Amino acid sequence: MTSPIVIGLSAVIVAADESSAYVLATRHGGDATGLPHGLFDPAGHRTFELGLRDWVQAQTGFEPGYVEQLYTFGDRGRELPRADLAEAPADARHISVGYLGLAPERPDTTGFDAIWRDWYDYFPWEDHRGGRPQMIDTTLAPLLMDWANAGGATAPRRVNRASAAFGLNGAPWLEERTLERYELLYECGVAPEAARDETVEDAPRLPASIVGAPMLSDHRRILATAIGRLRGKIKYRPVVFELAPERFTLFQLQQTVESILGGLLHKQNFRRALDKSGLVEATGQFETSTGGRPAEYYRYRRGEHALGGVIGVATPRK
Amino acid sequence: MTSPIVIGLSAVIVAADESSAYVLATRHGGDATGLPHGLFDPAGHRTFELGLRDWVQAQTGFEPGYVEQLYTFGDRGRELPRADLAEAPADARHISVGYLGLAPERPDTTGFDAIWRDWYDYFPWEDHRGGRPQMIDTTLAPLLMDWANAGGATAPRRVNRASAAFGLNGAPWLEERTLERYELLYECGVAPEAARDETVEDAPRLPASIVGAPMLSDHRRILATAIGRLRGKIKYRPVVFELAPERFTLFQLQQTVESILGGLLHKQNFRRALDKSGLVEATGQFETSTGGRPAEYYRYRRGEHALGGVIGVATPRK
DNA sequence: GACAATATGCTCAATCTGAGCATTAGTTGG
DNA sequence: CCAACTAATGCTCAGATTGAGCATATTGTC
């Protein structure tokens, strides 16, 4: 006879604007944050997605539009917090299915134990909009290298992994490798969750401004997966428009993309690419100024471009 | 109290050569084929991947190298075959986690109820190496359009979906949209599995040479997911080398890629791209001829190119 | 009216792509 | 041994794309 299984559904609900990208986080007990989540009900939920929508709605009041599955985590040892499993049998095995959802704005969450939080609070090393964060080279890299060198036979592999992930030793920084970076920090004990899960001993204790705010259970891992996926996808599918308001100026749109990517883009080339893609159209309305020449408002041309439309978002600036 | 859950693990093990791409299929009872699969054991398996490897090994004798998770299916109604669930409670909910594995050759499966099968047996419309298969326009497209037009209010959306997926009405054929194509054929009842699952009535009965060989439970859906994923990935990650032998000529490698993509590539440009990528190196050995000028054998340069290496496989031929 | 602050336009060289022609090095049949 | 044939490999070229930077247009402010 198989022993019981419980399936947790977790949602990374993302919003973004000119200033940053945000996740919908829930407060659990103290000030620990987690993702909206709950158990899949095999009797009641027809699909995972419907179950997920239920939970998000119940915990945050938000009704997700676009939703996609990210990954299913099943490793023993990185599971749901005990407290959330009151109903489940004590010997149950915990599986966790992560989802990504996009929100065109940040709706009010008053009345719910939920807040919109800057996702770079959780991953400070991921924000390169103001240049490569110093902590990478001053703090993280040395710790990673210590860990790598302690790896015995696997040391060379570890050095390679760390270099490729964090852009060390001449390797380029690739924004979509968010999960790999987080996993490395977890493995080497820098992520506070590692100490909590007792997968490492005598882990260094560093401030959240460097190692990021921890999350419940494996939620930060799911968040990292979501960021990586979104960063990859935004380059070849018109997903920004799920995050942008109805009307936007081109620069607003660019900054929204930059918030997601965590890096700056060359303005004129961003426009050129967008132009060629045919994804947006001018509205004839102009922004009533904030300083300089008024920017025209554009809107997304839904449909049409069944798939042709791609924002060649590439060209980095600076 | 939650009702019981069982998790099925299914593996798409892929191999490819100059002639075609293959999947490792298992025979279950009659001549129905399925993927190697089995139930996840929450007590015994530390991770999904380990459980999966156990099952594949036990059912086919093959030990997968490269493995990656594809997707977790949880819809009620498209579940595991009853027979495989003898041990599970009658009211259990069935979840299915699909994996993709790659094999550098097709090892012998004698002694096991498993065979390597051409994946285009399952998806005849996916092979465009000899030109666009006629059945798409003569048989599938009309059926899809009938179904679309019967969609009432959703008719326009259905027409769009079908057009974008199958390259109708001027839309381009995009090889990685394999899953979408299969799902459409399932929805419109052309895939025999739909009739079996009783999701449609009076479905047309067509030969397997047109609608492809059916598979157990949702295995063909998982296979479609795998093909799509692999086709996408082969363009930006050096995965072909997981499928190629130690030594290969450039044309063999190209044909292996073509087998996966289901389309032909421009030879000289394929070489140029490969050349620039720095992924391969000449061995100095030559093929002892099959007709013309002998081709040099190359080998994959593992490692090094931490991620830079990309085969700009794009340029289609013909 | 000069200046600051933006948005938007335009240019240019370097590189990349898609496509095709040309040459090389074998095999095979007289 | 030569001619014909088959593949592999080499090379060229125009057009498109990309990365970068300079130039101009419109506002509000002092």
Word description of this protein:
The structure is a homodimer of 318-residue chains. Chain A is of the alpha+beta class and 318 residues long. Helix content of chain A is 32%, strand content 19%. In chain A, the strands form 2 sheets. In chain A, strands 1, 2, 3, 4, 5, 6 and 7 form a 7-stranded mixed beta sheet that branches. In chain A, strand 1 (5-16) and strand 2 form a beta hairpin. In chain A, helix 3 crosses helix 4 (178-187) and helix 4 runs antiparallel to helix 7. The relative contact order of chain A is 0.14. The interface between A and B is large, with 37 and 37 residues. The first copy, chain A, binds a DNA duplex (30 and 30 nucleotides) through residues 249-251, 266-269, 271-273, 276, 289-296, 312, 314-317.
